[in-house]
């Protein structure tokens, strides 16, 4: 009997592990077993965070932050780059200064990390690797910003932090202190960081105090709108690796509040009040997506929600949180733009629609679409979770910056 019980336990444990690790993946994804293992670990962390939250032990996002903490590396200089943690305008930044000589003034990249405005850190191994590499490959000064995070700090704190760092750095006295060419500066970021970079670039156009213009903005699978969380990309990638739809909804809603009514309304896509209906023209995918991404999806008119939510949390209708809601006039004059999107990503259509709207507004855009990639791929460039696709996307981003900045 004991033998039978042990076998049953073993069988159940194996079934559970198999269920956990096996994720149906699109056929074109490289290194499927690696991707499955990565997905399984993220899913396990999500389940633990959910349990901790329900038991009242810690907030869901604080539990996710444990991954950020585990990945943290101290600022370490090497033979190519001097790395220090400092503050610009009272906001923590990690600064990368190249060591090799420069013929003239250097380029600069101001980088905002991803993590749904709730998690992540400039000092995570993956981000440290990305920004260090950027600094070394481009012989550029890189400022990686540690903006404050939700749930402790809500919108617009994250935006204000990255904006005040950018504004501080763009002062001519600061640029000359670091030997930076005022005509060769870029803001960049991935995911929520891409959202912040797009918002900063828009805000700078309106800011008469800032004399230095950005040369480029680089947005890596950015989140750009809060209005329609049922785009074709949200439908097709609802359960895809790293960023399933419900996690993105959680990130979006936590940016504004921990109150569940907003999250629930966003999850069912009925959070926008009828008085904001004019904004839907800016995210109408039936007009803005190419045919191959529309597939068999049918556009339906929005279902409106209560005005109360928008009055209580006006942030989700603010262009600083949702840059895709900017009018055509507000997009004109934006710098040369790089947008990377991934096929298997709920945020895919945000980036595609922004590329389309920027082009229509006369902004030069390079839109790089990775058909075999998923959200967050660029993060997986350091072991143990090293993915070939991560290296490929990172190299494309660096090459584009090298050619255009």
Automatic annotation (TrEMBL):
One of its GO terms (molecular function) is carboxylic ester hydrolase activity. Keywords: Disulfide bond, Hydrolase. Transmembrane segments: none annotated. The active site is at residues 191, 345, 375. InterPro entries: AB_hydrolase_3, AB_hydrolase_fold, Arylacetamide_deacetylase, GDXG_lipolytic_enzyme, Lipase_GDXG_put_SER_AS. Gene3D superfamilies: alpha/beta hydrolase (3.40.50.1820). Residues 109-268, 316-378 form the Alpha/beta hydrolase fold-3 domain. This is AAAD deacetylase. Belongs to the 'GDXG' lipolytic enzyme family. The keyword Magnesium does not apply. GO terms for cellular component: membrane. It comes from the Eukaryota.
């Amino acid at each position: 009997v004991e033998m039978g019980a042990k076998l049953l336990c073993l069988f159940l444990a194996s079934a559970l592990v198999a269920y956990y690790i096996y994720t149906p993946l699109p056929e074109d994804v490289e290194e499927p077993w690696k991707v499955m293992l990565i997905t399984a670990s993220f899913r396990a962390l999500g389940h633990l965070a959910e349990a901790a939250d329900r038991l009242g032990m810690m907030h869901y996002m604080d539990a996710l932050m444990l991954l950020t903490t585990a990945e943290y590396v101290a600022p370490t200089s090497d033979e190519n780059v001097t790395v220090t943690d400092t503050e610009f305008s009272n906001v923590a930044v990690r600064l990368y200064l190249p060591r090799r000589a420069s013929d003239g003034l250097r380029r600069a990249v101001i980088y905002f990390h991803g993590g749904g405005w709730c998690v992540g850190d400039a000092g995570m191994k993956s981000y440290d690797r990305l920004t260090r590499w950027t600094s070394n490959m481009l012989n550029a000064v890189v400022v990686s910003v540690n903006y404050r995070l939700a749930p402790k700090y809500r919108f617009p704190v994250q935006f204000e932090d990255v904006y005040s760092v950018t504004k501080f750095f763009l002062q001519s006295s600061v640029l000359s202190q670091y030997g930076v060419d005022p005509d060769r500066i870029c803001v960049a970021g991935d995911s929520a960081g891409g959202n912040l970079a797009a918002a900063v670039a828009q805000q700078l156009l309106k800011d008469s105090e800032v004399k230095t213009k950005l040369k480029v903005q680089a947005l890596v699978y950015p989140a750009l709108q809060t209005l329609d969380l049922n785009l074709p990309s949200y439908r097709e990638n609802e359960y895809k690796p790293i960023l399933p739809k419900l996690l993105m909804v959680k990130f979006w809603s936590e940016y504004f509040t921990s109150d569940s009514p907003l999250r629930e309304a966003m999850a069912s896509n009925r959070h926008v009040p009828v008085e904001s209906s004019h904004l839907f023209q800016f995210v109408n995918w039936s007009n803005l997506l190419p045919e191959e991404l529309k597939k068999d999806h049918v556009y339906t008119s929005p279902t409106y929600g209560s005005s109360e939510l928008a009055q209580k949390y006006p942030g989700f209708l603010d262009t600083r949180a949702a840059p895709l809601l900017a009018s055509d006039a507000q997009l004109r004059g934006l710098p040369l733009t790089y947008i990377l999107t991934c096929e298997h990503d709920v945020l895919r259509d945000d980036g595609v629609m922004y590329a389309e709207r920027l082009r229509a507004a006369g902004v030069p855009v390079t839109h790089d679409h990775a058909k075999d990639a998923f959200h967050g791929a660029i993060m997986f460039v350091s072991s143990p979770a090293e993915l070939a696709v991560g290296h490929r996307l990172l190299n494309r981003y660096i090459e584009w910056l090298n050619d255009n900045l």
